[in-house]
Predict the 3D structure of the following.
Amino acid sequence: MTTPIAAPRRILLGITGGIAAYKSADLVRRLRQQGAEVQVVMTDAATRFVTPLTFQALSGRPVRYGLWDEAAEAAMGHIELARWADLVLVAPASADFLARLAAGRADDLLATLCLATEAPIWVAPAMNRLMWANAATCANVATLTGRGVQLLGPDCGSQACGETGPGRMLEPAAIVEALHAAEGAGALAGLHVVISAGPTREPLDPVRFISNRSSGKMGFAVAAAARDAGARVTLVSGPVSLPTPAGLRRIDVETAAQMYAAVHGAIGDADIYIGAAAVADYTPTCCASQKIKKTSDCLELSLHKAADILASVSALERRPFTVGFAAETNDVERHALGKLVRKHLDLIAANEVGTDRAFDREDNALLLLWPGGRRQLELKSKADLAREFIALVAERYRETPRCAVSPVPALV
Ligand code: CTP
């Protein structure tokens, strides 16, 4: 089950005439997966590219396209529709539509709705690169953004007309991400969150290392959720094969010592630190400069304790709100509580690990513990779990006395 997006929940999706209209089908699907209600409104030109039936099936609502459709108007009049929306998103937005919007025209249903709504308006332009670069379009875009219309893209790349340049509609996934960022302008807005994720590698010789089974998926999901909640995110990552979530700063490291240095390099102005990395507890006393040869039947390794990054952050004089993770095979709550106290944490997220639990899986469950409280987050996808986890981090951050919170800015 997906966590419903907090806002905007009711999205009026305007589709105008352009070949990118076919991508809007995917956009509708993604928005609905996030729990949004989507009402599609098409311009006459849009219906020539994709049939309204496609969007009706995907949105689960009859598509609106005529200003003079009596039956539809009787069900929900255009002014009611304009009020219904939490957000008006026009994707794709053609050059003609931007011009009409800038001119304040009310010559079709979509333009009329845009004029009549109090909801924020976002546009994702899509057109040929020369149309996008044309002075008339530039002036229209400047007028619109000056009035507070939010611009999404356009992207640069190969176009349906065979040319290459700026003018492609932003990919549906990127549009949804941008909405998340705006929606999140709240819980962690204005805060800097440093997150460590993934395993570390402690080299034994030039070709071997000691590591663990962490995939980094949970930490990356937490980083994306923190970004969606409006935070500026620095992600310090051990070696993982995961793409960097858009819009955050990633610092790649290998060893526990490098992670320690990177975290402390980034923590200066951090408000929250989340140690989601599986950091080596022990590291080889020395790393052989050449490959260790198989000369004896038995090989003993000499290891020493690696510095504890989490404990060092919580011991800082100006410490951020400090959150740890505890991956345990047994007595999960007892061990996690021990770490909460021993490392002076504000919150700890514990999970059971074992042969097929947690590592390199798409889902997870977490037990959250803090001084005087606990909450169990049930098994769900790591993305959904991360969102719930971040919501609780924000709540605890606000309720922990020494952490001052900046006022929450209004949504878009
Ligand atoms: N951690 C850290 N630096 C280390 C080791 C761990 O910052 N060198 C952090 C992890 O990122 C995690 C938390 O500490 O947030 C829990 O790590 P864990 O290794 O499980 O805790 P330990 O105190 O080492 O306890 P134990 O080895 O007994 O499980």
About this structure: DSSP finds 14 helices and 19 strands in the chain.
